[in-house]
Amino acid sequence: MTAPAAPHTTGPPGTTRMTVMWGEAARGDERRVTHAQLIASAARMLRSPAGRIQVAHEPGGRPRLTGPARGLRVSLSHGDGVGAVALGRGPAALGVDIEPVRPLPATALARRWLGDTPADWIAALPRHERDEAFLALWTRKEAVGKARGHGLRRGGLTRPVAVPADWPPTRPPGRRLPFPSGSDTVTTVVIPAGRTRAVLSIAVSGRPAAPLVADLGDWRTVAFR
Question: What is the DSSP secondary-structure string of the chain?
Answer without folding.
Answer: ---PPPPPS--STT-EEEEEEEEE--TT-HHHHHHHHHHHHHHHHHT--GGG--EEE-TTS-EEE-GGGTT-EEEEEEETTEEEEEEE-SS-EEEEEEEE-----HHHHHHHHT-HHHHHHHHTS-GGGHHHHHHHHHHHHHHHHHHHTSTTTTTTTT---PPPSSSS--PPSSSEEEEPSSSEEEEEEEEEETTEEEEEEEEEES--SS-EEEEEEETTT----
